[in-house]
Amino acid sequence: MRGSAGFLLCSLLLLAPRCTEVAAQDIQPDPKTPCANWMGGAPGYPGHNGLPGRDGKDGKDGAKGEKGEEGLQGPKGDQGEIGAPGREGPRGFPGYPGQKGEKGEGAFVYRSAFSVGLKERAPHPNVPIRFSKIFYNEQSHYDASTGKFLCSIPGTYYFAYHLTVYLTDVKVSLYKKDKAVIFTYDQFQTNNVDQASGSVLLHLSSGDEVWLQVYGEGDNNGVYADNINDSTFMGFLLYPDPEVH
User: Domain tally for the chain?
Assistant: First the structure.
């Protein structure tokens, strides 16, 4: 027995270096664990996938980014329906007074007019002809006793006369404030009845007088009137002066 045991021990000692050399050629041991690979078993199979982990907590908001460039304007939309009227707003403050307007015409209408005719055949020369046949003298601005029109409303007036000429020539003049303004001359034709006429626009001030009279010494006094022929004198206010309004 002692001899068999010694033989087995010697055999193991001789085989140990050879096994070590073969193992060194097949697998290089980990320097940290020189005997791990020599003593470890075969590699195992990969394990099953693990369960998903729980959701993490929300992170904090990051810093606000820079403003982007303005985009292109889109197409105009359809017109919407008219909405209901809103509530009446508060009353505003009074505005500043406007500029003074132009002076308007007064409500009162100024009137001054007359129309008269001759009754006498041959009026006296160089004095106002007294037209005593009254056609219109509602304002009484014409005085039949003197033959003169007296201005009561300053303004612009129109005067006219139409005289029948018979038996002799006629030369008459229209006076304003003792001054002849216009003259009318008509030469009588034998066995004929003629007409002499004249008209004028005058500006009168309050108190001015206007009348008609034969001019000369009586040689030209053919102004005539009868039941079928008239000699007339008339005048009326066109418009009063602005300061009268």
Answer: 1
